[in-house]
From TrEMBL:
Keywords: Aminoacyl-tRNA synthetase, ATP-binding, Ligase, Nucleotide-binding, Protein biosynthesis. Pfam families: tRNA-synt_1b. CDD domains: TrpRS_core (cd00806). This is tryptophan--tRNA ligase. GO terms for biological process: mitochondrial tryptophanyl-tRNA aminoacylation.
Amino acid sequence: YAVVFSGIQPTGTPHLGNYLGAMRQWRRLQDMAGDEDKLLFSIVDLHAITMPQDAEALRSRRREMLAALLAIGLDPKRSTLFYQSSVMQHTELMWILSCTASMGYLGRMTQYKSKLLAGNKAGDLDEAVSSRLKLGLFSYPVLQAADILVHRATHVPVGDDQKQHLEFARECVTNFNHTYDQELLVSPQTITAPSSRVMSLRDPSQKMSKSSPNVRSRILITSTPNEIRQRIMSAVTDNTNAVTYEPNDRPGVANLLELTAQCSPNPTTPADVADLLMGGTLGDLKNACAEAVTAELRGIRDRYTELLERQGGKYLVDIEAAGAEVARRNAEETMRLVRDVVGLASLR
Ligand code: TYM
């Protein structure tokens, strides 16, 4: 049977990239899962604090993320939803993994570099840059590996940008199991959606991201039909007013074709959408895209708003408390074995 695990940072309302690249997959896996399968989705607040966060804002963003996960159709009866900081076994395993993880491997990873060097041209970590680098940002992938391994997940559905982190998680399994000469930790498989890399609507060479200062670069899962239309109508494309699918030469157009294909009610491909619109203008494509995205996101905004208010907030608190309880039990099963093979004290 399968154990599905994934995580999302509570750093703002999820956008279409998070939704198509990850969250919609989570819902699909949930809807396909059998009684034997386990699904766990964590709101990873400990990862969020690798960048400065205001405490009050972090608390509300965590709640908002939980409401968003429920609003897209995750069902707490089938999926365990919890805050990472509610389950201390994640950080406990992180420390143990970091004692067999290689600094060299971590140093070659790109995500912390791109955060650190944002704005500069990607280059070497000189003295000045590394003194601004916080240990937590550097060891971020070790915590992510612990998230996955502590639940002995077999499948991890993520967007393209997380593939490197998943490879590192498998490396942690090898290192740990080899060091302690046990097949204790389980190597997880990466699952990616067909649309694993949604691009910015302002700059199709960048991925759509929560942290971009330009709000017009993204569509939120809670955007109104009007906002969706505006964002897509003003999306950056190119000067050829015809619809063709050429991902390398026309990335902006390809992104809109991809969004239209992914949001169309019947499975289709960007190339098929381009064929359908052959002879049409970019305006026609944008209209079709806005319509498809609006239909795909319909209802999420209302459910989200209602969930945040339900029982004066108590509903969300109760869902998370129940999820944390299940996740703690699941993680503790692994940790008992881990503490034992490492020779650490067992919890009484
Ligand atoms: P985060 O919070 O940045 O993103 C959550 C999920 O959304 C995907 N995603 C995208 N997919 C397609 N196109 C995009 N433009 C796009 N932007 C984001 C991400 O790939 C991700 O799947 N490190 C993780 C959180 C994490 C995690 C884990 C994930 C912590 N522990 C354990 C899996 C397993 C992150 O920052 O995701």
